[in-house]
Amino acid sequence: MTLSELLPRTPVLVESVEDRHPHDPIARRLRELGFVAGEQVQVVARGPFGAEPLLVQVGYTRFALRRAEAARVRVAAPVAGAPA
Question: Taking the model in full, what pTM does it have?
Answer without folding.
Answer: 0.87
